[in-house]
Structure formats: structure tokens, C-alpha cells
Amino acid sequence: MNPLVREAVEVAKDIGDVVLVGAAAVMLHTREGRSSEDLDFALASELSDDILLDKGYIKLRDKRDSWQTPRHFKVDFFRKDVGLSALLLATMRHSKLITFNVFLVST
User: Fold this and answer.
1) CATH code for the domain in which residue 48 is found
2) What is the pTM of this model?
3) Domain, as residue range, for 11
4) I want to staple 44 with a disulfide (CB 3.0 to 4.6 A). Which of 26, 34, 84, 93 is the partner?
5) C-alpha angle 43-63-97 in degrees, rounded to nearest 5
6) 60-102: per-residue pLDDT in tens?
7) 3-class SS at 97?
8) For the stretch 80-91, what's the b/e string if a residue is b when 16 or more beta carbons lie within 10 angstroms of its beta carbon?
9) How far apart are CA 15 and CA 30, in angstroms?
């Protein structure tokens, strides 16, 4: 299994319902596109920094909500009240936004 896919599954196990977005999502959905060295997730529910820290995530200092997973992958979290249904609806309306529900992969 691709290391990014494996890590996306692990993040879903750590956090719960997440939606993978960005270059890695496009790559998984189309099997094309540029490669990615990090993972971008939109969260379906609120998640505090304290919860991430308790789970072994390390906050990276940059302009985004960037973290290092306990398995040493860089991830960005989009935590602004996006809601899972709103994300999926946006996906259907805008072909440039392609999402992949990692939670389904992990079950």
C-alpha cells in the first residue's frame, strides 16, 4: 500500500471522520497528478490542539495548521466549521475539489 494512503488510514483511526483533500486526494482519486509529500484533511467535527498533542501529534510552526503525525508524516488540518455534508456537496459542485473519505477506507 502507498505510504501516504497507509498514513491517511492511520490519521482516520487517530481522529475519526476526516476527508482527505488536496494533491494526495486528487492523486488517489484519479491515479494522476503531481505527487504529494504531505496530507491535507478537512475535519467533520471540532478537534482541539490538546487532543492532537495527547495523541502524539507535534505542532509545526508555519502559516497553516500543520502538524507532524506520530509516524512522522506532515499533515495540514482544515478545522474551520466545514462539516462533512457541506464538503461532499461542494465536491459534487466543483470538479476542482476532489475528496476521498478516509474513514471509509479504515473500516
Assistant:
1) 3.30.460
2) 0.72
3) 3-106
4) 84
5) 45
6) 987 678 999 999 999 998 876 555 555 555 554 444 444 444 4
7) coil
8) eebebeebeeeb
9) 25
